[in-house]
Amino acid sequence: MAEVLKVALTGNVATGKSTVAKMLEEHGLKVLDADEVVHELLEREDVKRKLVDKLGSEVLGEGGKVDRKAVARKVFKNRELLKWLENLLHPLVYERYEDFCGRHGGICVLEAALIFEKGNQKRFDKTVVVYAPFEVAKERALKRGMAFEDFLRRWNNQMDIEEKKLLADFVVDNSDGLERTRREVEKLVRELKEELKRKANP
If you ran DSSP here, which 8-state letter would residue 16 be given? Predict the structure, then answer.
């Protein structure tokens, strides 16, 4: 089986994880988006049943589909419910990621928000933080149409970005225009390829 380098790509709300993920894909790296996996999981019958049992039928929208906004409204007001939801979904996301690594080999990236917060960095060979300071992230979020209260709630629910920066193996600074970000991603890809070589030939 091909050697695998497991890489976590993380950051905070509106720091630019998806932008960097797209750039990594342009360089031929395989990226799995945890949010997309969660969207798929929420439509799985067994998951849907557990959601309705715990949160009530009002989390279902038209045609019996899960209304993610209704779920978010419930769980973000209640820490216990949020923890319950994370305990339900996170193991399933990692199951999917393991399968993804097995199918692709090489450098396999999981783009996900709560890596350090949940102590999941130990599941990976390397961690990458996409960095932008609070003010830059806030401005981007508001430009995208996110309400300030929503942005603040999410930001405060995540570990301080400065702290994440110190914990990461690699940092991509995405606070100062796309050209700089592209250069940093190119350097990151070179370094990850070196790491994969080292892992394959210790």
Answer: -
CA distance 47 to 79: 20
Q: How far apart are CA 54 and CA 92, in angstroms?
A: 18
Task: Kindly report the number of other CB atoms within 10 A of residue 59's CB atom.
Answer: 21
Rounded Cα gap, residues 170 and 158, in angstroms? 19
Q: What single string gives the DSSP state of each residue in 129-144? A: EEE--HHHHHHHHHHT
**Which overall architecture, per CATH, does domain 4-200 show?**
3-Layer(aba) Sandwich (3.40)
Please give the model's pTM, rounded to 2 decimal places.
0.94
Other Cβ atoms within 10 Å of 149 Cβ, number = 8
CA within 13 Å, CB half, 101: 19
**Phi-psi map region of 142: left, alpha, beta (phi>0 left; psi -120 to 50 alpha):** alpha
Contact by Cβ (8 Å): 4, 105: yes
| Residue the block writes with tokens 């961690």 | 127
Strands 106-111 and 126-131, bridge-based pairing: unpaired
Per-block mean pLDDT, blocks of 10 residues, the chain (202 long):
92 97 97 96 95 94 90 88 94 97 97 95 98 97 94 92 97 95 98 96 87
Place of tokens 């339900």: 88
- Identify the residue whose tokens are 């894909």: 25
Q: Which residue shows structure tokens 């995405």?
A: 174
CA distances from 72 to 19, 61, 169 (A): 24, 13, 31
